[in-house]
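[User]
If only I could read backbone structure tokens as easily as an amino acid sequence. I have put the entry right below:
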Amino acid sequence: MARLLLLGAGHAHLDAIRAIPALVARGHTVTVAGPGPCHCYSGMGPGVLGGTYAPQAMALPVRRMVQAAGGTFVTDTAVRIDAPGHAVHFASGLRLEYEVCSCNVGSLVAHILPGGDGVNGSTVGAPPSPVTLPVLSVKPIENLYRARQTLLRLAAHGAVDVLVAGGGPAALEVACNAAVCLARARGNAAPVVPGGDSVTLVAGRGLLPGLPERARDLCRTVTAARGVRIIEGARVLETTPEGALLDDGRSLPAHVVLLATGVAPPPLFAASGLIGRANGGPDGEADGGLAVNAHLQSIAHPDLFGGGDCIHFTPAPLPRVGVHAVRQGPVLAANLGTRLDAHARHAANAAPASGQPPLVPYIPRPGHLLVLDTGAGTGVLHRPLGGGALCFGGRLAFLVKRAIDTRFLRSHLPPGGTLPGECPWDAPA
């Protein structure tokens, strides 16, 4: 018997969770630790903000899934991994030992703003404060539901100025869906920022710098159609009770700030001494992720694995986008099973089985499909194709995205789906 400990129940661990019955049948035990009973699928978060989806539509009931499969679910957050000692320490004081551990602990918004009231939705449900400014990050994804609740609450009290910080795909999706949210809150049929309200996207050095001109032009067109103002060449420096200060000296009014300024791994690996050149990663804290090889296995600690946003993939650093976490899932599940079986044989003093499968490499595919949810059932699709690209916007783009997202969720949802109220954040403000 060998013990598997999964830290996080995100996209890259869903295949491992699905494999729990097979692992248990082989004599292993599986414990999954996560911050809550549900995991939110990031692809549908902007649609929840805009009102396209109900909040439970983006949630997977991972605690119920783990328990039904024969595993143990622990609601807690890992704060330190003792890799040499094969143990993990948690925020509650709990310590769990393992033979094999895998990390899929997601990411945090990379740049936190000084001022405001924090980035964890702490003001949702509270009356408007004259002192602090609500600041919500796009991570964790359920914050987009909290952002919707905040906008609806503010709209009930008067005009709303929304400021979105960031210039990447997430920032554009958030800005467009915030516009739709406000329009619907005012009872407007047109998905445009209502008169008296505003949505401003402060895009830093530029909007969508990683996309080709055709895709950027489509995104600018739909953003303008939503009534969103774009500011480029400046970034948000800090918040004040009245709004935000930009690094070019300008002040902007805001009733709420939504942060989509890129993502970075959480501090877990730095706190565990698992980053830097000694662990196979870049020098210092330049990346902050767990350095893994092509098999998604730690360079320095072979019983430690990882996937998704929290890793530094040493063969070729990957963008932190959900498609890689999803594609890493089957590879990670296979390799965890192989490593567990090797531990079990070693404990039993058994010889390696003939035909023992080797660890499977994760081979990233060149390019990936990107479909942005621009609100009200529209989207912008971009897919590199050879030396060119397929790029278009409108209803069809959104339908492609919806088909992909719903197919992925249905492939993992248990019978009955996610139940109303099963997620603790799924409640009216």
Notes: Residues 281 and 400 are 37 Å apart (CA to CA). DSSP finds ten helices and 25 strands in the chain.
